[in-house]
Amino acid sequence: MKIGIITQARTGSSRLPKKVLLPIKKKTLLEYHIERLQQANLPVYVATTRNEEDNEIVQIAHQKQVRFSRGSETDVLCRYYSCAKENDLDFIVRVTSDCPLIDAGLIARGVSLLEERGFGSRLFISNTIERTFPRGFDFSLFSFQMLEEAQFRASDPYLREHVTPYFHQNVPGDIEHCSIRHTDDFSHFRITVDQQEDFLLVKRLIEDYGCEDKNYQEIIQVMVDHPGLAEINAAVRQKEK
């Protein structure tokens, strides 16, 4: 079975434009994101847009020696489908590039569960079904068969922009949702980058605490040990995906 990680990336964010290209310690957020994904020892693909403004994303993909695919800015579902089809993927790990400190170990847990369940083609495995992890460690794992079904059945613009809601609707009704949970609820922490305050928090985590080299448990512990960190972006309200 060929499993690949596809991350969506673009520079046209409305709330924090070009956020994936923001630098911390001479690396962009996208570079941190890709490097941490590569630790999962799975092929990584960047699904970006055809917009000229996203040429720099393609350059970073080249530098990091990961393949890329380009498609519609708004039809993200089609971007994922095209990338998966071009690269003959049987299963897709879906992540987003606004998570620079995403943890490869969590993705490995999802892959292990997939293996234990016999690579079922109707499994939807995620750590966001019931939120217990901080935002910023989000991933979902599903089969190409499910992605192809969504590609040809989902017509609502919201479903095409956000990819996974189609699976939550459980259409046609036989998708099995497998939740990966943390033992404690840390869903109140935000380690994703959507606004300037989010970026300032991640900047502190990397510059002051070396979190680019820590796993998710260690990053959570930094947040717990230093309550003032969570206050940096406490007022930010999550944009629905």
Outline of the structure:
This protein has 241 residues and is of the alpha/beta class. Helices cover 39% and strands 16% of the residues.
What does this structure look like?
By secondary structure, the chain is α/β, with parallel strands linked by helices. Helix content is 39%, strand content 16%. The protein has helices spanning 29-38, 55-63, 76-86, 104-116, 144-153, 157-162, 165-168, 196-209, 216-225, 227-232, and strands at 3-8, 23-24, 27-28, 44-49, 67-71, 91-96, 123-126, 140-143, 176-179. The chain has a seven-stranded mixed sheet with strand order 5-4-1-6-8-7-9, sandwiched between helices. It is globular and about 45 Å long. The two termini are 28 Å apart.
Class from secondary-structure proportions = alpha/beta
The share of residues in extended strands comes to 15-25%
> Termini, distance in Å?
28 Å
Number of strands: 9
Secondary-structure element pattern, one letter each = EEEHEHEHEHEEHHHEHHH
Which architecture per CATH?
Alpha-Beta Complex
Count of domain modules? 1
The Rg value, from CA coordinates, equals 17 Å
Unreliable stretches (pLDDT < 50, length at least 5) are none
**Looking across the biggest beta sheet, what order are the strands in?**
5-4-1-6-8-7-9
CATH fold-level assignment: Spore Coat Polysaccharide Biosynthesis Protein SpsA, Chain A
Q: How large is the count of helical segments?
A: 10
Q: Please give the share of residues in helix.
A: 25-40%
Report the average pLDDT across residues. 95
Q: Identify the overall geometry.
A: globular
What is the CATH domain class? Alpha Beta
